[in-house]
């Protein structure tokens, strides 16, 4: 929420079941991992809370706001931050790797087979090896990439602030 919290509501009547308050607003929706949720906040932290109780399980500090939705794949969580880093955490909140990809990363990373793909305010879409963060390729545009990329049949589709929609070979 804009007031800095993540909340769970009852499906039966819409009443609040629990609320977890951060130090700044939470601009993104949560990603679900097993029995907990993971989300970012503009206070530069990534949080994990029990999805039934809201009890905090762990938090991880980045050096920029975490505005976009996090992506979970198997036992790893990927988060883009306004510090320009893509973070890869295990589901216990431990850093596996991080990679500087530009001045600002905003959107949710896309998992595409063995790659994680993310756009940046540095006008590039980047594919990394999801296991170790090694950069595999870049695709440059003439505008920032704030959109969430999509994948279909070997092609990654994404928009840019240069007014174009692109289709790039995922390999």
Précis, in short:
With 171 residues, the protein is mainly beta. It is 0% helix and 49% strand. The strands form five sheets. Strands 3-4-5-6 form a four-stranded antiparallel sheet, with no helix packed on it. A four-stranded antiparallel sheet has the order 7-8-9-10, with no helix packed on it. The chain has a four-stranded antiparallel sheet with strand order 11-12-13-14, with no helix packed on it.
What is this structure's SSE topology?
Layout: E1 5-9, E2 16-21, E3 31-33, E4 36-40, E5 45-50, E6 56-61, E7 71-73, E8 76-80, E9 85-90, E10 95-100, E11 110-112, E12 115-119, E13 124-129, E14 135-140, E15 150-152, E16 155-159, E17 165-169
Antiparallel strand pairs: 1-2, 3-4, 4-5, 5-6, 7-8, 8-9, 9-10, 11-12, 12-13, 13-14, 15-16, 16-17
Structure overview:
By secondary structure, this protein is mainly β. It is built from no helices and 17 strands. 35% of the residues are buried. The mean pLDDT is 89.
